[in-house]
Amino acid sequence: MLASPASAAAGTFAPQPRQALPIPSKSPHSAPQQPLPTTCPMLRSSSIMHTETHDKQSLDYILKSMVAGGIAGSAAKTVIAPLDRVKILFQTSNPHYEHYAGSLRGAVRAMREIIQNHGYPALFQGHSATLLRIFPYAAVKFMAYEQYKTILMPNGAEKSPLKGMIAGSMAGVTSVFVSYPLDLVRVRLAFQSQRTPFLSIVRTVYNEPNPWFGTNTSRRRRPVRLIAGIGNFYRGFVPTVYGMIPYAGVSFYTYESLKTWCMDSLIAPAAVVNWREVNEANDNGSHVKPQLRAWAYLTSGALSGMLAQASSYPMEVIRRNMQVSAVRHAGIMSKVLSTNGSINRGRAGINPTQGLALMTRTTYETAKWIYARKGVPGFFVGLSIGFVKVVPMFAVSFYMYEWMKQVLDIDWEG
Description:
Blueprint lengths: L5 H5 L30 H4 L3 E3 L8 H21 L1 H11 L12 H15 L8 H26 L8 H31 L6 H10 L14 H11 L4 H28 L3 H4 L3 H9 L4 E3 L3 H30 L1 H4 L1 H7 L15 H8 L3 H12 L8 H25 L7
Antiparallel strand pairs: 1-2
Helix pairs in contact: 3-6, 3-18, 4-18, 6-7, 7-10, 10-13, 13-17, 13-18, 15-16
């Protein structure tokens, strides 16, 4: 039985399914009944979806899953862009807004001050860079998750929670490697109190000193300058990987577990669209894929985001501080380096090596610096905002991904 197209995507807000029409008995004189076409995504997105065999490693599936993931991630990030801006200001101890950190009320006051001083568009400062980053990031993340899951669990008999978590972690690391340079530029844009052109930030990051190549890379050969410049866009990448492993693994594992629980638990009659018809179809030997209502997808995504955020937040704080360390200590290095890039030794009593070290702390050194300034709570600054942010972000992201899979006709079993 087919439900209305919006039934699976809109859950409880979908129109009631039509009553099944009686199937006339066949007679010798009747023409053979033609099967309904299954190529239409809206027909495939009915609440009762018969399981079919498809190749998830085909180019068509890979491209469509990337489009679905990219759109889902972009929609989710747009919803929480103002909170994301304030959270970055708190995490990086921006001197103009640091005194607001520590409470949701402070976050609201910070947003009010931003609006008063710079207008509503300032809440979305850096959002264009966010979308440039998040589309490929989310596209690669969801696509990679589907591919890793297919490799680790090629059939239903091999499914396991541990393999699902590993697939999620590997997908997270893969996606962050692709999108990390844009994430660093986005953080720099959000950290600035005044509007700064995107390309100006890119040039600044590229020309900053790189600790692996010394304080002055401008006089080195072009390949060395290129490697050093590109390396600057991966500042803070190591703690990002450390944080992404639990973040992506926990989020995908929790979401898939909650989704399965909604389909099989006592709340299944309320969570599954056309639950009675699905059960009857399965009892009759038809293997069908149940579709959850909107609230079940949204709730599963929200809870998965909360657990993922809590498991990886300290590493996120370390990463953010490493990304803006060069901006924070730019005044010190201006005293160390002259206009042509040569070293002013002994000027203002600053050691060039120490000045460079301030700008390019390692993961461990950044953690020590945060602990020395704020103790253990310093690793959780902005966590309350983080929870407020991830609840709608993960809810919208997973829900939109499920909806886009139905629209693109790739909502397959497995």
